[in-house]
Amino acid sequence: MLYIVMHKINAEIAAGGPPSKELVENMGKLIGGAVAAGKLHDGDGLLGAQTRVRLNWKSGQRSATRGPYAGDNELVASFLKIKVDTLDEAVNWATRYGEAIGAGEVEVGPITEAWDIGVAPKPEGHVPLRALLLHKADRATEAGEALPVEVQKKLGSLLDEMKRAGVFLGHERLTPSAKAKRLQRVAGRNTWTDGPFTESKELISGYIILKADSLQEAIEWTARYAEILGDIEVDVREVVAS
User: What is the chain's pLDDT, residue by residue, as a tens digit (242 residues)?
Assistant: First the structure.
């Protein structure tokens, strides 16, 4: 089974600047261990809210808000990872994605690269932009309703087009938050809360997708993950089997 571990923006992350050398080294060891054990499926960090764009649909009309902004409805139903040339191109694909699935909100978040956190130099010349398109949850996704057949066809057609264009990097849907766990780490103490979650106000800062044999295994890994990050909020959600 696949579980996504999503950590939120905390005070240290919101302050900006590169992470400490100790954090980078400890996280590298943890991720390296997951890779060696065959447990790592995917994972990335996201740049801050000032780099993001939030798309909303109301009465068939789309609006776009560029960051920085505070968290609002940050409970994720699905996400699409893409590689494009510009942020405007990412917004265009996000618009088509949102329209295909009938989304109320999709956030475009540029992905953190090694040179953004000072662990490697930026390559010379043009560098593609990787971004995560975060589809926010609504009543239907939280109820676990299947996508209507017509929507599935539209989404499948769009993903096929993205693959042909060399834009597609990955797409995942998450089970409702009723099956989720939330870890809040404050002053070194962990508090776990069972879903469902009526709201999630903290912006997502990054994620790891684990191949785990059980939710309990994912929870144990998440506790180690949070210990490295410090005071933080982390959601653990099961990924819908494809």
Answer: 999 999 998 877 777 777 888 988 999 899 999 999 999 999 999 999 999 999 999 988 999 999 999 888 899 999 999 999 999 999 999 999 999 999 999 999 999 998 988 888 999 999 999 999 999 999 999 999 999 999 999 999 999 999 999 999 999 999 999 999 999 999 999 999 999 998 778 899 999 999 999 999 999 999 999 999 999 999 999 999 86
pTM over 0.85: yes
Does residue 121 sit within a domain?
no
Report the length, in residues, of the chain. Answer: 242
Three-state secondary structure string covering 147-203 = CCHHHHHHHHHHHHHHHHCCCEEEEEEECCHHHCEEEEEECCEEEEEECCCCCCCCC
Tally of domains in the chain: 1
With 0-12 / 13-18 / 19 or more C-beta atoms within 10 angstroms meaning exposed / middle / buried, residue 227 is middle
**Which neighbouring-strand residues pair with 79?**
134, 172
Domain housing 130: 2-116+126-238
